[in-house]
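Per reviewer request, we include the raw input and output of the structure prediction for the construct analysed in the revised manuscript.
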Amino acid sequence: MVKLLIFKKHSRFYTTTTSEAKDRGAEVGFKEGKHEYLPYPQTILDKNPNLNQNPGWE
C-alpha cells in the first residue's frame, strides 16, 4: 500500500516538489511574496517579543 502511494503522480509530495507546484497553486489562490511562509500564531508572537511576523502576514 505504501509503495503505491509513494509513486502516485498526483500526491501532495509530488505536486509540491515539482514545477507543477506554481501551476497548481494558481488554482487555489497562491500569491507569491505571501504564501511561501505561513504566519506565526499570535500566541507565539506574544511569548517572544524578539520574533517578527513573516512577511505578508503583518
